[in-house]
Fold these 4 entries.
Entry 1:
Amino acid sequence: MSGQLGAVLALTLAILTYYYCQHESNMLSITSKVKLNNGNTIPQFGLGVYQAKPGEVAENAVLIALKTGYRFIDTAAGYRNEKDVGEALKKSGIPREEVFISTKVNNCDQGYKKTLAAFNNSMEQLGLDYLDLYLLHSPNPGPRKRKESWLALEELVKKGLIRNIGVSNYGKHHLDELLEYCTIKPVVNQIEIHPWLTRVELVEYCRKLNIAVEAYSPLAKGKKLDDERLLNLARKYSKEPAQILLRWSLQHGYIVFPKSDREERIKTNADIFNFELDNDDMKVLDDCDEYFTTGWDPTKNP
Ligand SMILES: NC(=O)c1ccc[n+]([C@@H]2O[C@H](COP(=O)([O-])OP(=O)(O)OC[C@H]3O[C@@H](n4cnc5c(N)ncnc54)[C@H](OP(=O)(O)O)[C@@H]3O)[C@@H](O)[C@H]2O)c1
Ligand SMILES: *[C@@H]1O[C@H](CO)[C@@H](O)[C@H](O)[C@H]1NC(C)=O
């Protein structure tokens, strides 16, 4: 009798464990990763530091984020805070290989030699000896310079100094042009995406090419936080509007890195792994699309 009971209990436990694991594998967390076309991975969630004031403000934001569990920082030479990112990383005491650092070549530094020099400068600022991801900030400098810069990036990968290279603000025609001469494909295209700028066609094109999509300005820089459709969902899920927007990005599979330099928001922006928007509510947000850009839009440039 007790043998039978034991067998029933063991079976029940096995079934529960099976379902738990199935569920768990579908669940997102702050350390969830996205697989790139070169076999490497990138955390799906991180911190952006555009307009985080260089110096103490930027350094503190990054340090708080790392303490909160963020493991990916998106900066750029143009943000003038690479030094602060590097300082925070050192102060955090977290092993280098556990944090994913991404920076970008400034438009004014495009061209072969200039890009190599810009890379040296960024590495010195960051205090790193290898970089996780280096992006061309935009296609704006034109076809000749962006080609030269890309070839410089490929060389840095071959030297083992950069793990992954990608582009930002590239439209379909820029990607087509790049694919004609690259010997290393970009792993990501970093473009502005949120419910008011969904870029459905460009996203589909990137996915067809196996280029991961990084959705920048996921909070639309805070400019749409009073949209009634968003506020309704915030009430329904008992979450902040910003948390609803970040969840929308994650559930679309985008890599996302909201910017804040306030401790409270850095924490709440990461508190998005304990709820899920249902399909109808994802659709409500998808339908907000109105091609609303919050900054520049180089994807349309020649
Ligand atoms: N490649 C490119 O061309 C490009 C362009 C733009 C952005 N990006 C990248 O994408 C990152 C994010 O985009 P973003 O900085 O443009 O804008 P964002 O993340 O969409 O929004 C940031 C703004 O929202 C505020 N905010 C943050 N959390 C909030 C919350 N929980 N509730 C209400 N307001 C909140 C921030 O203010 P506080 O800081 O005061 O909290 C800031 O003003 C950038 O930092 C950068 O890494 C790349
Ligand atoms: C960059 O740094 C490397 C190693 O320190 C050096 O060999 C190279 O000449 C530098 N390149 C430029 C363009 O400054």
Entry 2:
Amino acid sequence: MFESTIDFIKSTFKTNEFLPLQEPRFIGNEKKYLNECIDSTFVSSVGKFVDKFEKEIAAYTGLKYAIATVNGTSALHISLLLADVQQDDEVITQALTFIATCNAISYCNAKPIFIDVDKDTMGLSPKILKEFLQENTRLEDGKCINKTTGKTIKACVPMHTFGHACRIDEIKDICDEYKIVLVEDAAESLGTTYKGKHTGAFGKLGAISFNGNKIVTSGGGGCIITDDEALAKKAKHMTTTAKIPHKWEFEHDMIAYNYRMPNLNAALLVAQLENLDKYLANKRELATIYKKFFDEQKITFMIEPKESKSNYWLHAVILKDREQRNAFLEATNEKGMMTRPIWVLMNKLEMFKGAQCSNLDNSLWLEDRVVNIPSTVRL
Ligand SMILES: *Cc1c(COP(=O)(O)O)cnc(C)c1O
């Protein structure tokens, strides 16, 4: 089964070897900058590559500030703390996301509420969000109070799944109306714009990941993006042990974090960013090739939703049902072609079993059917 699909994908990548889902490519100045970094001895958390990277990512996403962090999860964690998410607060996110989103919420000792996604974006559904808030909350002293738990819903974290933008402008309007801080999990969507604006730029804060499997990588790394100067300063402070600047004294004014991105990682990332446009074009071209092929196979290929110019980070197909999904996973992985199902819904995990949820019909439907297929930039 699926032999023609496996043959086609292997021929597209011109290989008979094991085919991974998403491999990094180091085809530019990676080694040069890493050597420069080592020669400078500034391999750790201070150095010109960190500064350069922060400037470049801010310019690229069209925001005023970017703060480099050790990974995407820590970028989310700090963003939520800056949104004033505290113990016993609640944070809305989608049931269909990667665990990191919910881990960051949990690090703040807050509880997630899971809302359904739209089928065409696989991201948070503004329609279902609005219905949920109308039915389940009331505004009190400028706060959104959950009528069921009596707790405050402080923030909302939509995620741009596989680099496809969700309806983030509608979500922003709803959050504004309900006095909920919008924090975007843009971990997967560097290079993705929605109505011409970069994802992560709609919320008060956005978090991006540069993990090894993302579209560009620093080995491990992340960043916070924002237009708010005060939040940007606080983000830098909180990710760097809250040290008060002084020539020699070690004074710190709060319990904070060592979430700095080392200069060594930033050096790799600066080189990677030089090729981002090339990667984006390459992945988009692969999407066109896949679309044509899967149309002929009568298998749905996930294309960019309306208004989203997607980075096509991970390509995905939507199979007929869970049985066909399992057969596809079995056949492809058996033949050395890596494919992976979309995540198990967050509300099904042991840690989040008690969480409040909206109707999750779309999430359940997608969970049964979506599989990622090889997506690496072809050389
Ligand atoms: C990759 C990812 C993150 C952050 O991951 P790190 O590995 O900590 O950089 C967060 N959310 C989503 C949806 C992701 O895919």
Entry 3:
Amino acid sequence: MDYTLLHTLVWLLPAVAFTTQELVRLSVSPGIVAECGKPVTLNCDASSPGEELSIKHMEWLQNGKSVCSMDTAIPNHTHSPSDFYCEYKQGQLSLILKRVKPQEKGNYTCKLHSNQGALSKKTTVELQECCGIAEGVRTTDRLTCTFKHVYPDGDVHWFHGSHNLSDGSVEQHTSKQVEEGGWLTIRSDLERKSSHGPYNCSLMSTTSGRHIASTLVPNPKSPGRVRSQQPSHKARNGVGSLGPIWTLLCFSVLLVATLN
Ligand SMILES: *[C@@H]1O[C@H](CO)[C@@H](O)[C@H](O)[C@H]1NC(C)=O
Ligand SMILES: *[C@@H]1O[C@H](CO)[C@@H](O)[C@H](O)[C@H]1NC(C)=O
Ligand SMILES: *[C@@H]1O[C@H](CO)[C@@H](O)[C@H](O)[C@H]1NC(C)=O
Ligand SMILES: *[C@@H]1O[C@H](CO)[C@@H](O)[C@H](O)[C@H]1NC(C)=O
């Protein structure tokens, strides 16, 4: 190849790329680290500063697989039974993930075909670390902690009071299960040695090493009578729910008032 031809090509190529970019623009929502179970909206906007833009096709793909397109977009999401839906209006295709789950994380690409050329843009969805439910149960021969709706993977550490039992002195067995949506259920059993004092288990993320959740395994009410297989301590996101107690209290007050 002679020098002038190469020289011309070097100058011509970026110019061609530049002109197509000038004609039609595509912008997508920035990458997001979403809270587990919360809705996520990914927008894709096509626009053209110059001539009339005629959109032939717009589509969202997750990790290379088609999720939805402007043809499958629905006007009223309230009727959609699935976990996501798409809306399309005037050059904007929005993908709405109703309750974001581990399976939905990854790379999302928006593709456009128009009278002014084809384009695609990428964005990402990541999930924050989370645990939906943590509960501790005490039975006659063992203590069990169960963490449900967990993301990502985690390790369970047991404590007796403030003493860390994860040094191998007490036998513990941990099992993990992948549930629908990519959530993990992590269960850990501890052989019971001493019957007294509060036991505690803590879930640490294997990726960040951060503490995701913890739960106290309650003491039995009287030492002689241990109720088995009865979840007696529950926590959601580490915060106890007072809702049902208040409802019960209000109901009782109402009942007493009515009876009087
Ligand atoms: C869509 O839902 C809105 C309320 O959110 C309602 O006003 C509208 O009539 C609905 N449209 C259709 C086509 O069902
Ligand atoms: C997303 O893209 C990045 C970089 O292109 C790649 O490293 C990663 O594996 C992709 N993730 C998925 C879930 O495909
Ligand atoms: C629970 O575990 C934490 C460590 O994660 C520890 O610092 C704390 O003392 C424990 N609490 C009780 C009541 O055992
Ligand atoms: C408990 O011990 C384990 C294993 O030695 C360690 O990885 C973990 O960080 C300890 N946890 C705390 C809160 O000290």
Entry 4:
Amino acid sequence: MRWSRRSFLSGLGLAPLSAARWPESGARVAETARENIYRELGVRPFINAAGTYTALSASLLSPEVTRAMAEAAKSYVSILELQQACGKRIASLVGAEGAVVTAGCAAALTLATAAVVSGGDEKAISRLPDTGGLRNEVILPKGHRFEYDHALRAVGVRIIEVSSARELRAAIHEKTALLFFLNHRANESPISRKELVSAGKAAGVPTLIDAAADLPPVENLTAFTRMGFDLVAFSGGKGLRGPQCSGLLLGRKDLIDAALLNGSPHPDSVARIAKVGKEEIVGLTKAVELYLAKDHEAEWQEWEERVSHILSRVSGIDGVHAERFVPEIANQVPHAAIGWDSARLRLTRDQFAQELREGEPRIEPRPSPSEEARLEIGVWMMEPGDHVIVAERCAEILKRSPA
Ligand SMILES: *Cc1c(COP(=O)(O)O)cnc(C)c1O
């Protein structure tokens, strides 16, 4: 597609930006046709040396998903029919009773909460987030509160924290709507997934797990439903590499049906603001199919090679030590960590990141809250060959920073 830069910008109400914002020559980023749209907008793309961070636009679509979305964009369909057909397809692929494509994992959390609070009752659905007279308490283990619990609170629930399985069982009463578990806290949780699931089953209260960033391993697509969670939420734009504004809610058929009633296309619903379109629904369905069919071992091996290359390129530099690491939970893939002796190199993590960001091509490292003298690099969202560029740039910055 082509349009005049000036008319495009004026159509957006934007002033044309200076043409020479960054060098033209030798720039990998500037060279690729797919980024022309960003250049026209004056937004500078980067090599993703971070990972699947929503604020960094998370992941890139595969050509197959892009094609599926483009095809979806060409015909009119009933959104409900499409949701039901795709939900059925995804559910059968991952061995769940039901599934619904949402506008992100956060939207899946809102839909799940609205489903259990409203129970699918029409009057209750249109009243939310007014939860007077309804079950409106969500119990979660201490340490599982997080930024995204806003997505639960948007439904008008009160959050109760408990410190042990015994406390959890005692806290359940007639107002309890949901037991919630944040998977990336599993390793330091005072209550295990198993304990939470069994407390829910014993009391007849639904359970929900947020596993947004927990693919890979691919087994997780089925593991949590098998473990007994009634509802499981994933991000579609992270490891699944579906559309960035997509997510997946899996689980009990009655709750999935109720979830669907609490969102788009139903106008009078609390999650109507998290609309999901035909392109995303089809795109995520395709992404799930591709994810299940892909050779995960070969992909892992490719990530290992990228990490090894980066480590070998910087390890010989004076005062530098580098290592491979795999986060214990969430984003569980090989990463590179570059550390240095601050007595020997005059460089802070922020300076290092800034230099990568300002250079050509722009590189964005992992936004990890780590020490001053350590920079982490995620390789799994890189495009082929990116790791070589990143390794060179890191080596160059480290080499010219002696104290
Ligand atoms: C990324 C993330 C979310 C939000 O996912 P979106 O798909 O961006 O809505 C929710 N919970 C956790 C744990 C996450 O990492």
